[in-house]
Design a protein that fits this description.
Distance between the termini of chain B: 45 Å
CATH architecture of the largest domain in chain A: Roll
CATH topology of the largest domain in chain A: Ubiquitin-like (UB roll)
Radius of gyration of chain A: 16 Å
Order of helices and strands of chain A: EEHEEEHHHH
Strand content of chain B: 25-35%
Helix content of chain A: 25-40%
Number of strands of chain B: 14
Number of domains of chain B: 3
Structural class of chain B: alpha+beta
Distance between the termini of chain A: 33 Å
Structural class of chain A: alpha+beta
Shape of chain B: globular
Largest interface: A-B, 31 and 28 residues
Largest sheet of chain B: 5 strands, antiparallel
Number of helices of chain A: 5
Strand order of the largest sheet of chain B: 4-5-10-6-7
Order of helices and strands of chain B: EHEHEEEHHHHHHEEEEEEEEEHHH
Oligomer: heterodimer
Helix content of chain B: 25-40%
CATH superfamily of the largest domain in chain A: Beta-grasp domain
Chain lengths: 169, 291
């Protein structure tokens, strides 16, 4: 079946069997390998992508289900070479060790910041509760999200043209 | 992992979907959000010849108050329930309970109706719907029928839904007096199935119980409705003795098995404790005047 979707702002098409999972379509057909396959059983969140802005587990979505819809992967976070605030946050606060869960963690938390620009620690912990970090770097992940939230709110307050690196999209 | 090959159809009208099911219902599985079905397909526990995706049918995502009940369409996701101001006001038990279902990402895809039709005895919604005395609306090419959730579950992953039917909505009756509910769940980690969970809803007439609903998760071949415990409460005040008696009857109704999450005896006792806590919480909420 032919599927067409917007991936990181660009329209992409492919011819797939109905049984092809979204994560496999992204990784194999589109060569976007930033989306990871972890548990492959809807438990770990390594395969998280944004579907029309909401985080979902792409190992539990068929590519044909998202025909006509918009997907954002970790490759779509940085804009024009400038890191997104959430990426800066993970860098500055050491929000990753091995990095395997990081794409999912960053996408979940960037969606959180869209809905809730000033999340509490509790809000952040709830938001990432479907994503597992095997290095158990949760403390730093929470700090990273707070860092990003702060960067975003400062960028929003700053006058036009004085944006922090990659502030906003 | 990937599923065995299947045909896929995503009709855009209900009539078309029902006509496909009329022809191929026996070999087909209906899919809404896919959060239960896709894992089954990947593990090849299910190998349907056809997956009928109802995700593109119009008008099924609504949560709407109607005469005497609130209607939740087959495409209303867990997250829609979580954010529904109407449900928070009308059936707060559902909004409280939804936080216990899977994890936030699964809640962005999975649906209430799909979860009930999946009929996992460890599913949360089944016992909540049993406690609330909800009804399913099922449609087929030959018409519509209403199926009480009590009696809908036949066994693990088995229901009375016919192969040519699509469950298009659930109707949750609205309480007429002061009412309150609660959901208690014991789980090892976020997103895990319940070791035990108990759903409770009570409706009061003055100080006496007019109606009581108690649903049990993960302690039988299906979600269970603890009818003897419910009946024992009707017409009585929720005294400590009445609550303890209902909790004992509910624990007797549970049929858990030993497994990695706990022994049968332990789970029965958790049922007893959760029914007690649940009834006390439900009583407090009903007395606050929250429905």
């Amino acid at each position: 079946m032919k599927v067409t979707m917007t991936v990181n702002g660009t329209q992409r098409s492919g011819d797939v069997e109905p049984r092809v999972l979204l994560v496999d379509f992204l990784r194999t057909n589109l060569a976007l390998t930033g989306t990871h396959v972890g548990c492959d059983t809807t438990s770990c969140g390594a395969c998280t992508v944004l579907l029309d802005g909401e985080p979902v587990k792409s190992c539990t979505v068929l590519a044909v289900q998202v025909d006509g819809r918009a997907i954002k992967t970790v490759e779509g976070l940085a804009q024009g070479g400038a890191l997104a605030p959430i990426q800066v946050g993970f860098h500055e606060e050491h929000g990753l060790q091995c990095g395997f869960c990081t794409p999912g963690m960053m996408l979940v938390t960037s969606a959180l910041l869209e809905r809730n620009p000033n999340p509490t620690d509790d809000d952040i912990r709830w938001a990432i509760s479907g994503n597992i970090c095997r290095c158990t770097g949760y403390m730093n992940i929470v700090k990273a999200v707070k860092h990003a939230a702060q960067m975003q709110s400062e960028a929003a307050k700053a006058p036009q043209g004085a944006a922090v690196a990659g502030g906003g999209e | 992992m990937f599923p065995a090959a299947f045909d896929y159809s995503a009709p855009t009208t209900l009539a078309e979907a029902l006509s496909i099911l009329k022809q191929r219902g026996d070999d087909a599985k209906v899919m809404a959000g896919g959060q239960s079905l896709i894992p089954l397909l990947k593990l090849r526990f299910a190998q349907p010849a056809l997956v009928l995706d109802i995700g593109r049918l119009p008008g099924l995502a609504e949560i709407k108050r109607e005469d005497g009940h609130v209607r939740i369409g087959a495409l209303a996701r867990h997250v829609d329930i979580e954010r529904s101001k109407e449900l928070a006001k009308l059936v707060p038990l559902m909004v409280e309970a939804v936080h216990w279902i899977a994890d936030p990402l699964v809640r962005n895809r999975g649906t209430l109706v799909g979860s009930v039709c999946h009929a996992d005895p460890s599913g949360d919604w089944g016992s909540i719907m049993l406690a609330l005395n909800a009804e399913l609306v099922a449609q087929s090419a030959s018409g519509e029928r209403v199926i009480p959730v009590d009696g809908f579950f036949q066994g693990p992953f088995t229901t009375t839904l016919r192969p040519d039917e699509i469950a298009t909505a659930i109707r949750v009756p609205l309480p007429s007096g002061s009412a309150g509910g609660s959901y208690h769940k014991l789980e090892r980690k976020v997103g895990d199935f319940a070791t035990v969970a108990v759903s409770v809803q009570v409706e009061l007439d003055g100080r006496k119980v007019k109606q009581a609903g108690i649903g049990l998760t993960s302690v039988g071949a299906t979600n269970l409705k603890a009818k003897k415990a419910e009946q024992a409460l009707v017409g009585h005040e929720l005294t400590d003795e009445a609550i303890a008696q209902a909790a004992k009857l509910a624990a007797e109704a549970a049929e858990p098995k030993d497994d990695i999450r706990g022994t049968a005896a332990y789970k029965k006792d958790v049922v007893r404790v959760f029914v007690q806590r649940g009834l006390k919480a439900a009583l407090a909420r009903a007395q606050e005047g929250k429905s």
